[in-house]
């Protein structure tokens, strides 16, 4: 039921707001000092904070010449960033939302980039198809983390990486950490990045509210505000009080890397 509810929400957003400028849906990552952030093309600067979350997740993993899968690609901004800035051989963005995938195919263009509609718990790819799987702010929608991790393990090549970031209520964080640490992949790094994410939401609040006013039909505003984590919402307050926490992780499939 959780997965169906999230799918319905993202289908509505993709159908109602087809603006190509809306490329990212994550909460962002604040780098301090700002000069430490990645260099970006001018066209990507408005999305800097969202891109910095991807940059943080990818840090330490060389994707040059790799085959990369993003599970839960949303509106395609992250997969496009990977394809354009990290020089993989191929990048596939997968999402459960049919309309989101249609939007990605319409607007996201980069060498080796493509998009597939599919389920994170039943990935439509053969065993050992990828050198890296990226999963950013998506897994909280899944009905089973165990099934997701098993599928990631299946589609990764030996030595391949799962590059992960997501949030959970504090009461669920121990279970997430345990699942990552005891699953089929080896947990190499785990970081609490709650402060960086809350900081990004804080400094980006005015811009994101202006985009809501411009892009989201007014009758949806009340429902959209907590989803977006605006200041003054329960979501933002719970991040401040650490009742919601955000982590990033890198996990590796055992065996020698077969990346090109």
From TrEMBL:
Residues 69-164 form the Methyltransferase type domain. It comes from the Bacteria. One of its GO terms (molecular function) is S-adenosylmethionine-dependent methyltransferase activity. CDD domains: AdoMet_MTases. Pfam families: Methyltransf_11. Keywords: Methyltransferase, Transferase. This is Methyltransferase family protein. It comes from Agrococcus jenensis.
